[in-house]
Amino acid sequence: MINTCFFGGGCFWCTEAIFNKIIGIVSISPGYMGGHVKDPTYHQVCEGNTGHAEVVKIDYDSSKISFKDLISVFFSTHDPTTLNRQGNDIGTQYRSCVFTNDEKEIEILKEYIENLSKNFDKKIVTTIENKTEFYLAEDYHHNYFNLNKNVPYCSVVIDPKIKKLINSKNPLLKHN
Questions:
Q1: Which of 118, 86, 83 is nearest to 14 (CA)?
Q2: Which of 20, 28, 67, 99 could be bridged to 131 by S-S, CB 3.0 to 4.6 A?
Q3: Can you tell me the distance from the alpha carbon of 33 to that of 127, in angstroms, rounded to the nearest whole number?
Q4: What angle do CA 100, 34, 161 make, to 5 degrees?
Q5: Closest CA to 100 of 125, 53, 78, 132
């Protein structure tokens, strides 16, 4: 069965690149969610005034990977304790967030965050937000890392995250 989830873990280029390496993922789309402007553009969202977060929409095969597995990857590949920031990406558009209206997912998330918080000195600031309309990002954002590996942002920011994930030998990694 194909299910959908929405994660915001900083720059959507990073989040998309991470989840492209995970089994059971059917498709990933970068976009914007959680704001008050209809059909926002990347430039509008980057100004930080639309209320949107950069997110990825992940369609996954729940017979191959669970929502709990997905959130374990999500929380292990970004810093859920930094408010409105991931590395040098600063602003509410880079907040750590999960969008859902599913009560079971909310329950799983709350329990996961509660257990995970024991591993951090700082408070986990990841928000669980009501799912709103998802706006697909402009075409040039799709599969950005794989198409732009030599761009400095990709080699300095995204590539180390991918290498860390691969070196973790996470059993959810695709074998390719």
A1: 86
A2: 99
A3: 13
A4: 75
A5: 132
Pick the closest to residue 32 from 10, 49, 59, 56 (CA basis): 56
Structural domain of 114: 2-167
Kindly list the catalytic residues.
Answer: 11
Number of domains in the chain: 1
Residue holding tokens 């965050």?
113
Q: Supply the CATH number for residue 48's domain.
A: 3.30.1060.10
Alpha helices in 63-158 (DSSP H): 67-76, 103-116, 144-147, 152-153
Q: How many angstroms separate the CA atoms of 147 and 168, rounded?
A: 24
pLDDT in tens, 115-131: 999 999 999 999 999 99
Is residue 68 one of the residues assigned to a domain? Answer: yes
Tokens (6 digits) for 39 = 């059909």
